[in-house]
Specification:
With 589 residues, the chain is of the alpha/beta class. It folds into two domains: 179 residues, no CATH class; 291 residues, Nucleoside phosphorylase/phosphoribosyltransferase catalytic domain (Pyrimidine Nucleoside Phosphorylase, Chain A, domain 2), CATH 3.40.1030.10. The chain is 41% helix and 8% strand. Strand 2, helix 13 and strand 3 form a beta-alpha-beta unit. Helix 1 crosses helix 21, helix 3 packs parallel to helix 5 and helix 12 packs across helix 20. The N terminus is likely disordered.
Length: 589
Amino acid sequence: MKSLLLNPKPINSIIFPSKTQNSPRFNPHPFPNLHIQSRHRWIRRRNLSTAVKAVLDSATVEQFGIPEFDFRNPSLSSSYRSSKLTRPNQTVLDAQTRVCTGPTQTKPLDEEQAFKVFDTILRSARGEIKDEEEVSKAQMGAFFAAMTIRANAFPEATQWSEGEMRAMKTFWPLLVRVLPPDIVFIADPEGLMMGLGSSIGPQFVGNGTSEMRLVGALREVLAGGHLGFEEVQGVLKEVLPFQEEGEKPHGASEALLAAFLIGQRMNRETDRELKAYCLAFDEEFGPPPIADVKSLTHYGEPYDGNTRFFRSTLFVAAVRSCYGESCLLHGVDWMPPKGGITEEQMLKFMGANISLSPFNAKKLLEDEEVGFAYVSQREARPSLYSLIGIREHIKKRPPLATTEKVQQYVKASGKEAIVTGFYHGGYEESLLMLMKRRGVHSGLVVKGEEGALSMTTRLRSSMTKGIPVNYCSGFRSLDISSTSEPGGVTRQGFSLEVNAKDYGFQPTDTPRTDRSVSRNIELGLAALSGEKGPAYDRIVLNAGMVDHLLGAEGAEDISTALDRARDAIDSGNALKRLLNYIKLSHKVS
């Protein structure tokens, strides 16, 4: 591995105007045009936070033709949670954190905890708890699904504790009288709970064709079993998009849907189940558009964002677009369980149009002055986006948290690649399997901090257990004649742990952002403006290393790939492309 000498050249940057006096609103507009060698000066960290929030004067608004938006731009990621969402009951949510997880991760409740949870559910079912303290049907569905699966399929260590047994014995005779039939079915599908011999669970079939299909599949899930590809897809297409009961004549109850989603994750999905989730809504709006670009990388960051560390992918995309590596980012405004910083929040804060259709994103990918784009799940897969509320109430991540990262909202006429992150060991193979199913030329999974896809320059901790941060695994396709795989394409697999120090980077801790959207933007813009430091190094590392690992043209040598990324920043080109995106995202139609 060849070490690099870092000898950056300073560049000029841009001047940001200040916020309009006495105005509580932000008018999200792009920053002024970039002129590297002329009238602009350095961005300083001490004034950048104000600059990020700044509003351009009315002349600039008129020049760019960008409308004023009637909203405030919140600085913290938690502010992006929709006010329309009801909050879950915290007592039950804490219990779900312990029990709505895998066979080895589950932590049974002790007697005090169990009695408190069951008492809370009973009082809520009786109508004694109102408003935000009420236990939702989705919470009940997820919690009782977890209890049922643990009893039926988990190893002895994570089955019911003695305290849970005593609590169930005390409360179930009372609960069965007040819980709705769908929740009784989830908790006691065989009607054998505590020897009461209830007929509700065995006879329950649901209301309408959608629920009937879901109930049939859920019986298998609650027993610890698995489903076929067509069965999972059939259920998802039948019940989504989710609408509150009463809004959709033939919809499914949130309790049944929550039980299905968390149950599949607790049973650890099979490949065919993950494929079903991944592909179910590929043509919700018809075939995806095809961008006329030679290379397109799909970035699948975790949709629930970062809560602690700098999120660099938006800025990496701006860098890689400078030399023909087009990038498509996708995600949401806010997603549980973490509710962290997302690309959509940053783009919204900076004034970009965050409601692009895949067809409009295609135009920006093809634009020689931009070369990257962002698509919200809200626009591309509204059926899946409709589950955000339920996902908050089931607490733990459902199968969709894995499969939504491996999407192709736009395809390319040239080569395609997918990059995504993972946290829990074992899911790296599942993600690579889905990428291959997508048919892309190259795929990469990264064990980044917080489960994100960004590599870090910090030193590996000696206390690390399991798969270390900066572990990478993937494949690239070789265009050579082969009889081993269809189409004459052979996939070359690889896995490695990236040590940034080997490539000339000084070890540094990852910058903290702690849910601050403005702080994350501040770090990214300072880096794209040429300010050297940890954020700059991470952007360079993740641009150059991804180029190399995916087999991008001109990135065969790692040092050359890293230098190319530095040049894209130090020339001002990467920052200019980000500003162009903010401006032009409002003009495509």
